[in-house]
Amino acid sequence: MKVLQKLLPVIKESRSVQLYNCGVTDKGCAALTSALRSNPSHLRELDLSWNKLRYSVKLLSDVLQDPQCKLEKLGLSDCDITDEGCAALTSALRSNPSHLRDLNLSWNKLRDSGVKLLSDVLQDPHCKLEKLRLSDCGVTDKGCSALTSGLRSNPSHLRELDLSKNKLRDSSKKLLSDLKKDPHYKLETLHY
Predict the structure, then answer these.
(1) Architecture of domain 2-191 in CATH?
(2) Could you say which of 8, 24, 110, 112 has the lowest number of CB atoms within 10 Å?
(3) Which residue has better confidence, 165 or 13?
């Protein structure tokens, strides 16, 4: 926490903040989000992967929903985020969907309910998300169905989708493969 406190003035002015696997806790995340709120238009890339942010993702969501926030890349893999945290995150993305291009939520416990919330964000015509990583998130065929439905509603942006290490049957994999083959969709890279 002391090191993070010393970095906060620098973070306020940074375009890219990489704090993966730094032992950031709820208290540290509160300090970080406070610093980001003071200058939300500057930051373009934030990676907090491999920190246990479970409940702190709600604080981060407050920054993301700020209309001045221009964050393009967000890494939250293995942050102990559940479907509850995903609800806060997707709510923020729905209120400010046009900037985020790359979202990594791999190795979290999102399950189908969290993925359904993400599919609602993907349906928004203002959503410009190009890369979505959901590896090992407990997604089943039900979540995959919601996701493909969301992609069909707004086919023009997503280029890369990672659903590897989830519980998808062949029927779901076929749905995804069909999307990738269809020229109306921009999906170029698909992992399942």
Answers:
(1) Alpha-Beta Horseshoe (3.80)
(2) 8
(3) 165
